[in-house]
């Protein structure tokens, strides 16, 4: 799950990035509002952690511009602005959640998971398709009730496909879920991960839509 962190404090930003990485997130970190607005416009992120007191462009302006352009990326505001009026203004401007610094990293990770779930119409941490079940809080996957050992990339790819069950995701979209800045991406990386997932979870789980991409069928309600 790829997250954008917009935070100008070096010590705090480093700690948040390290903590979220331990919780299984892929974290790209920017340190000013202009960079945050530029990155969010790409649509490459499942969520954003946004400080309001950013240099070059205030975080509130970034948020308002984002929603004016109808970019739906979930935004969690993380700020020292703790007045009730500031919280109301942030939520009314389009923030999906609002937390006051300092924050417990376990809570931050849980709130991000909840934002991403809601953005994809999911109500629970557990995502299912056939005999496969993924728990995003526990970061575990089962097939026919048996715990399956997946690499981080395999897990991230499966999670992206399950969140978007019924939709076809192309290679570029899947790469955006898997790789943060600075990662060299092999031309067949997605195909290799798909091959390993099929071997571990069953050949029929992930469908190839020729010339388009991959999908997991939506499980009937």
UniProtKB/TrEMBL annotation:
Gene3D superfamilies: 3.40.50.2300, 6.10.250.690, Winged helix-like DNA-binding domain superfamily/Winged helix DNA-binding domain. The modification 4-aspartylphosphate is found at residue 51. Its main location: cytoplasm. It comes from the Bacteria. Residues 2-116 form the Response regulatory domain. It holds the Pfam family Response_reg. Keywords: Cytoplasm, DNA-binding, Phosphoprotein, Transcription, Transcription regulation, Two-component regulatory system. It is found in: Cytoplasm. Residues 124-218 form the OmpR/PhoB-type domain. InterPro entries: CheY-like_superfamily, OmpR/PhoB-type_DNA-bd, Sig_transdc_resp-reg_receiver, WalR-like, WH-like_DNA-bd_sf. Residues 124-218 bind DNA. This is Response regulator. It comes from Giesbergeria sinuosa.
